[in-house]
Design a protein that fits this description.
23% of the residues lie in helices and 22% in strands. By secondary structure, the chain is an alpha+beta fold. It binds coenzyme A. Coenzyme A binds at residues 135-136, 198-200, 205-211, 233, 236-237, 239-240.
Length: 260
């Protein structure tokens, strides 16, 4: 077994280290074109290389080396399964107070066959998180280091509740939405919630996932004691949000954009 791996450490921000692990194609016993993941299972890969985990080997299929963004046990952390917020918050939602009908019935703990609803983690970078977001708006070219730095910032603030739906068979993210809590001095130092970036992958639309995400985040904002929850949407989506009790405000949404 000839596993040629090396860590390339790049300093990212204050403390995060990005490690790229390259494994020579010569690891294959047969054809040099056989994907590594066909030859070895995750467990074997982990034990051969000393990596903590492997993420989306297929993403790098066309490269001369498998470049798994991962972390070795003796290196700093980069992409991992640490949730951006406490997962029990989702599981403990009072789903009985949800006002939107689901047929067939689904819930945060049972979102459908082969699906899981959970907080975002950095490993989702290689599970197509940005691919889903790009169906909503321009995402730009984000590196794992930029993603991790932003994730850490959001997690540290404690105000970002980014949820994802993962297809556990394909290990792909198929939907996401975010609740942000904003702190106020008004209303006795109250909190308000904002719903942002609601998007369901086009191949999974019509399976009630959009409804599940918005219902879950609306209930979560209540649980977090927000005094109100708001969102901005295009006129074509007004009817969708009305299902959850959102009404169009008499106030006008204003913006000032700063071109680069
Ligand atoms: C809008 C979006 C999130 C809905 O997700 P989805 O998973 O396809 O929706 P669901 O299967 O949960 O549908 C829920 C219900 O809303 C309805 N619905 C879906 N999209 C709707 C829309 N744009 N307007 C009105 N109703 C809509 C469905 O008919 C369904 O109705 P029913 O419960 O009476 O059967 C999804 O279409 C999407 O990602 N669109 C692109 C990104 C986007 O526009 N996001 C919103 C940003 S504000």
């Amino acid at each position: 077994m000839n596993v040629n791996h090396k860590c390339i450490k790049r300093t990212c921000g204050e403390r995060v280290e990005a490690i790229t692990l390259s494994i020579s194609w010569s690891v294959h016993s047969g054809s040099s074109k056989t994907p590594l993941s066909n030859t070895l299972d995750d467990h074997q890969l982990i034990s051969y290389t000393g990596c903590h985990s492997f993420i989306s080997l297929w993403e790098y299929f066309t490269r001369p080396f498998f470049g798994c963004v991962c972390h070795r046990r003796d290196c700093g952390m980069l992409l991992n399964e640490t949730p951006i917020f406490e997962p029990s918050l989702l599981q403990e939602l009072d789903w009985s107070s949800n006002t939107v009908p689901f047929s067939p019935p689904i819930s945060p703990s049972s979102p459908g066959e082969g699906l899981v609803l959970r907080p975002l983690c950095t490993a989702d970078f290689h599970r197509g998180f940005f691919k889903v977001l790009s169906q909503l708006t321009t995402t730009g070219d984000v590196t794992p280091e930029q993603f991790t730095k932003k994730f850490d910032h959001m997690k540290k603030s404690g105000d970002y509740y980014v949820v994802v739906v993962e297809d556990t068979n394909l290990r792909r993210i198929v939907a996401t939405a975010t609740l942000i809590t904003e702190h106020k001095f008004i209303h006795s130092c109250a909190k308000r919630g904002r719903v942002e970036e609601v998007v369901v992958s086009d191949v999974c639309r019509g399976k009630q996932l959009g409804k599940l995400l918005v219902s879950a985040l609306t209930l979560l904002s209540k649980k977090l004691e927000c005094y109100k929850i708001t969102l901005e949407c295009s006129p074509t989506n007004v009817a969708f949000y009305q299902k959850f009790g959102y009404t169009a405000s008499h106030e006008t949404y204003m913006q000032c954009r700063f071109p680069n």
